[in-house]
Design brief:
Layout: E1 2-13, E2 16-28, E3 33-37, H1 44-51, E4 59-64, E5 67-68, H2 74-84, E6 85-88, H3 100-110, H4 115-128, H5 144-156, E7 162-166, H6 174-189, E8 193-197, H7 201-204, E9 209-214, E10 217-220
Helix pairs in contact: 3-4, 3-5
Length: 221
């Protein structure tokens, strides 16, 4: 599904290169649940953003189902991202002015899905996540756990092949965090590939593989 070859990410300032990622070689198969771990500043989120096509590497090759992502223009990257990838952030990134229903519906609007189909898909997801009663509320009327549920519902509404989660339980208390991890595990069992960044050994155990980064290098896999 994913193959990274000698991926590097650096920033240049007055001829000095500051490396965030160095020489990353990585393969991820369809259906895996991968946890990326490492200390703060190790490059975990940068790697996740490159995998999610929200950032570009400075060097190296990125193949997604054999397609050379590193050679694509912005339009093709955006279309690939929208059609194949769901992103779950630690800060939820819900749109404050939209209701729960409207937030979940947003990816379908981007994909120009017909209104009657959108209605059915949103209803299905609201029911599955047990948040039908919250559909007309705004994000600031929800608890942290409920907001993260909505964020995951939005991430999966378009049935992506890959979900990327950046510290998905970072702002939640233990019980809420466990519920979110159980949900991600169920999605994985149903065939969705999941890659998460986490500091938590407990959360990492939900995956079938742990990748460790240190100072931008892949130190363990």
């Amino acid at each position: 599904m994913i193959e990274l070859k000698e991926i590097e990410k650096y920033y240049t300032n007055k001829f000095v290169k500051t490396f965030v990622l160095r020489n990353i070689d990585l393969k991820i198969e369809e259906g895996e649940f991968v946890s990326i771990m490492g200390p703060s500043g190790a490059g975990k989120s940068t790697l996740l953003y490159i995998l999610g096509m929200l950032d570009k590497p400075s060097n190296g090759e990125y193949l997604f189902y054999g397609e050379p992502v590193h050679k694509m223009n912005e339009r093709k990257l955006t279309n690939l991202h929208k059609s194949h990838i769901g992103f779950v952030f630690q800060q939820y990134h819900l749109i404050d002015e939209l209701t729960v229903y409207e937030n979940i519906e947003t990816p379908l609007l981007y994909q120009k899905v017909k209104a009657n189909v959108r209605k059915g898909l949103v209803a299905e997801v609201l029911d599955r996540f047990n948040i039908v009663a919250k559909k007309d509320l705004f994000p600031n009327q929800l608890s942290g756990g409920q907001q993260q549920l909505v964020a995951i519902a939005r991430a999966i509404i378009a049935k992506p092949k890959l979900i990327l989660a950046d510290e998905p339980t970072g702002n939640l208390h233990t019980t809420q965090g466990k519920e979110i991890m159980e949900l991600l595990k169920r999605l994985n069992n149903e065939g969705t590939t999941i890659i998460q960044v986490t500091h938590s050994d407990e959360n990492a155990k939900y995956g079938n593989r742990i990748i460790k980064l240190s100072d931008g290098w892949l130190s363990d896999d």
